[in-house]
Every structure is written in C-alpha cells, then in structure tokens.
Amino acid sequence: MSQFITVQVGQCGNQIGSAFWPLTLHEYGVQTTSGGVNLLKMYKNYSKNSKELSDAFSSFFYVPDSQQHSFAFKNVSDLEQAKVKARAVLVDMEDSVVSRFSQGPLSNLFDRTCTITNYPGSGNNWAVGYYTHGLEYYNRLEETIRLMVEKCDCLHGFLLMHSVGGGTGSGLGTATLKLLDDAYPHVDRFVSSVYPASTQDVITAPYNVLLATRELIEHATCVFPSENRALQDMCNMYRNGKRENADQAKYNASCLPFQDMNSIIVNMLMHLTSGSRFSGSLNTDMNELATNLVAYPNLHYIFSSISPVALTAPYIITTNNKKYYDELFTNAWSRNNQLIKVDPLQSRSLIIGAAHIYRGDASLTDIRRNIERFQSKAKFTAWSKEAMKVGLCSVPPVGHPASLLCLMNSTAISYLFKDIIHQFDKLYKKKAHIHHYLQVDQFENEDFIGSREKILSVFDQYIRIERQTPINISRLELN
Ligand SMILES: Nc1nc2c(ncn2[C@@H]2O[C@H](COP(=O)(O)OP(=O)(O)OP(=O)(O)O)[C@@H](O)[C@H]2O)c(=O)[nH]1
Ligand SMILES: [Mg+2]
Predict the structure, then answer these.
(1) Which residue from 34, 121, 362, 479 lies 20 to 30 Å from 402 (Cα-Cα)?
(2) Domain segments of the chain: what residues?
(3) Given ligand 1 and candidates 7, 8, 9, 11, which is best to mutate, with the most ligand atoms within 8 Å of its CB?
(4) Using N-to-C axis directions, what is the helix angle for 173-183 and 138-150, rounded to 10°?
(5) Biggest distance spanned by C-alpha atoms of the chain
C-alpha cells in the first residue's frame, strides 16, 4: 500500500488535521476518547484480516526506529506502547492550535520534531507567510520533510491541508508546496484548499486568495477546493438530518464554528485516499485519479461532492435496500452535497474528466446503471465521455454501509477563478491595504499583476474548452 505524508499549515490546516487524525484512526478501528485511544475494538474488527489492516495502517502511520514498515498488530497493546506516529508535518506561525494537540488524546501521535511553530502568525498577509516565514523556515521545513520522506518505503504523495484566506496557510502553505515541487518533483502533491465564504472574515482575503491560487496552479498535482459557504450550507441542511431555521443555524454556527465543516472535508479526504489504503475489486490509486482527471497541466482544480454527508457523530444505517445505493449517486450529484458552489451539471459546463469512488458492497450492475445515468445527465468534451474512472473500495466508511465521492474536472470551475479576479479587482482598484504587502521584503506589485494574469489565463483556457465544438470529418482524404 502506498504512503502519504500530510502537511497541515496554519490555523485552518491544523484544525482540519485535528478532525482528520481521529477519523483516520477510527477507520482502522482505533477509538480516540478523552482518556486516550482504545485499540481493543480494532483487534476485534480486523482480527480476521490483520495483514490488510497492517498494510493499510502504514499509509498514514509509522513506528519510529523500526526497520519494518508494516505492523504486527498482535503485539500491540496500546498506541502509546507501539509508539505509532502519524506521517505528519504540523506548521503554524502561531502556536495555539498546534499546542492543543499536545494535551488531547492524540498527544503522542505526532513526532515533536515535525512541529514547526512561531508567534504571532502571519497577520492575514500572504506576503509575510510566503516570503518572510517562507525564507526563514525554508531549511527547517526542507529538513523536517526530508526526515519524514526517509521513513517511507513507498511514498505516494503529499497531502497538504490549508486555507487560502489568511496569511500562514495561504502564504507559507504555498511556499511549502513550491518546496515540495522543487525537492520531490516526481511525488504527487494533493492539496485540500479552503476558500473563504463570500462574507469574508478576513479583509485582505481577496489578495491572499489570488496570490495563493497562482501558486496552487503552478505547483500542485491536484487541488480539491472547498468553500466555507458551501460547507456552511451543507451543515445547516444536514445537521441532525433536518433543515434548521436561520436562528438555529446561527446559534449552531457560533457553538462549533468549524467542527462540522471540517468533518465534511475530512470525509472527502478519507474517501479520496481509500483506494490507496484499502483493497477493493476495482481499486483506484491516487496517481490513477490524477492521470484520468487532469487533461492539461494547469487545469487541475477538481470539484468534489460526497454522499452521505457524515457530520461529526457517525450514525449507523443498516439497510440492504437497493434504492439506498441509487440514492447515494443521486445525492452525490445534487447541489446540496457539493464542497464548492459551482454547477458542473448545468448545460454550458463541460466535463473534462470524472471519477466516482464507491466504498462498501455494491454489485457492478448497480454501479454501471448509475454511471450510465450520470453520462446521460452531464455534458462532456468530445474526448472525455467514455473516460469515467470508477473506484470500488471494499472497506466502507465509519458508521455507514457505503459512501460515494464524485470528482469532476469541469469547466464550471472557471466561476471560481472569475470570482477570485472580481474580488481582487474590487479591493485593488482602490489600492486598499496594499502597503502591508509592498513593505514585505521581496514582495513586489508584480506578484499581484502576475497572479491575476495567471488566473485569467486559466479562466480563458476553460472558456476555450467550452467553446470547442466537435469537428466532423466527413471523409478521410488519403492524398
Ligand atoms: N473550513 C474552515 N475554515 C477555517 C478554519 N479556520 C479558519 N478558517 C478560514 O480560513 C481563513 C483564515 O485562515 P486561517 O487558517 O485562520 O489563517 P492562518 O493560515 O492561520 O494565517 P494567519 O492567522 O493570518 O497567520 C478564513 O477564511 C477562515 O474562515 C477551519 O478550521 N475550517
Ligand atoms: Mg493563524
């Protein structure tokens, strides 16, 4: 099984991480409680197939000082004794979120040498994150990542988690991404990027988003964007399985501002990597996904939607009802289940590449019927209609009999790029706040201009694809 190194940067990246690791452990049957972790359940779940679990576990975890890359679980009495560590690098230029890890049930999961923090952050300024901290911490980041890479015998990819609205995740996060591209050009770089809600909580977010997006276009293998507005809508819709009124939704949002939203992102990442971690009858590895979904180098922003939407507390459904499986597909294509608010199934959008990752038991007939339904619903480019990647992973997600992740590389994502430019122009036209950026060593106005041009050129590429009409060749001319 292939291995991943996660790199979580900034407040958002580390808060996603704090939801990611308990669920990852949970997927292997390890429960985290306030008192610590409980491996007992894992033994019960996997006693029949401990070899598979052991292989799968090494995708995200390792045992320090061990020559073995897989685990002999029968000898493990608890996580602490096994000294199992996460293949994770934790970075924040402000230490409050990362320091919380050292108190909770995950306290021994992270190697302390893989934590890079400072004080007091990057002040919501991409330039401070990218240039000031990026240069100051370059050697430390490079060394920490190198040591983590050396602990892998089958490194498959990096999984970067961050937001693009602030300073650290956005600036230092993309500086780290560039470092990964320079140092490990042949290792895939998958990025989960959180885009701010349109009612922005960071006034300089339009600048940070634009500057970070350029780097993501230039250095990522695939970006899986999520939008806080879409995540909020999903939470409001699915919390407790029913719609809430506006007051209730506001109250819930003030209690748990990001917990449920992050849990949606984490579930998406679990499904995304499931084929690389567990076996299945039609398994899809992450590198196959990239090959199938990315037709042109810069066009690698991948739309995602999931079904069911599993919020923080997993619940158990026991159903053998076939309709349940069909509904999984229908819901995954619904606008309510999208991690980003664009519309890939509208009549103008064209799909350049698509994939469905199914977890759980299903018959190939059921899958084929649903894929045909999808092909009749969506519009594709002239070359992409038959190229539907399907992944079947036999291990279902925690608390559900099955799940579906729908991934699309669609021209509809051009709306995101259009909005980034629009939001940037509004602020930049007035030259508001730009002095904070221009006073940072190495930052130049050209960073703004070049980023805008890059994003505009990607936008144009999508529009050109939309306008391409199939060429009819009536006959072949041999001479
Ligand atoms: N979905 C989600 N969004 C978050 C979370 N934390 C912050 N955000 C959003 O991320 C943006 C701000 O980025 P942060 O991650 O807080 O900033 P940072 O990377 O720590 O950078 P600085 O604090 O400026 O150094 C805002 O749009 C927030 O709404 C989180 O846990 N989940
Ligand atoms: Mg911060």
Answers:
(1) 34
(2) 3-287
(3) 11
(4) 60
(5) 79
Q: Say what the alpha-carbon torsion angle 75, 31, 314, 57 is, to the nearest 10 degrees.
A: -40
Under 8 Å between Cβ of 29 and 46: yes
State the Cα–Cα distance between residues 162 and 85, nearest whole angstrom. 21
pLDDT by residue (tens digit) across 46-90? Answer: 444 556 666 778 899 988 876 555 555 544 444 556 678 899 999
Q: What percent of the chain has pLDDT over 90?
A: 58
Q: What is the pLDDT of residues 223-255, one digit of tens each?
A: 999 999 999 999 888 775 544 555 545 544 544
Q: 326: Cβ–Cβ under 8 A, 6 or more apart, which residues?
A: 366, 369, 370
Q: Can you tell me the distance from the alpha carbon of 301 to that of 280, in angstroms, rounded to the nearest whole number?
A: 26
Provide the 3-class DSSP secondary structure of residue 449: helix
Q: Which CATH architecture has domain 3-287?
A: 3-Layer(aba) Sandwich (3.40)
Those residues with Cβ within 8 angstroms of residue 450's Cβ, 6 or more apart along the chain or in another chain: 214
Q: Alpha-carbon distance 264 to 164, whole Å?
A: 18
The residues that bridge with 33 in the sheet, in sequence order, are 36
Output the CA 124–ligand 2 centroid distance in Å.
7
Q: 167 in ligand 1 pocket by Cβ < 6 Å?
A: yes
| Cβ count near 391 (within 10 Å) | 24
Residue located nearest, by CA, to atom 5 of ligand 1: 12
- ω into 401 cis (within 30 of 0): no
Residue 195 CA: nearest ligand 1 atom is 27
- Scanning the structure block, which residue is given the tokens 């608890």? 78
User: What's at 128, amino acid-wise?
Assistant: V
CB-based contacts of 41: which residues, under 8 Å, 6+ apart? 29, 30, 31
Q: Provide the angle, in degrees to the nearest 10, between the axes of the packed helices 246-255 and 228-238.
A: 110
Ligand 1 centre to CA of 45 (Å) is 36
Say if ligand 1 is within 6 A of residue 15 CB. yes
CB 122 within 8 A of CB 154: no
Which stretch of 63-77, 89-103, 129-143 has the lowest confidence by average pLDDT? 63-77
**What are the phi and psi torsion angles at 142 (to 5°)?**
-60, -45
* Rounded CA separation 430/427 (Å): 6
The residue behind tokens 């021209």 is 411
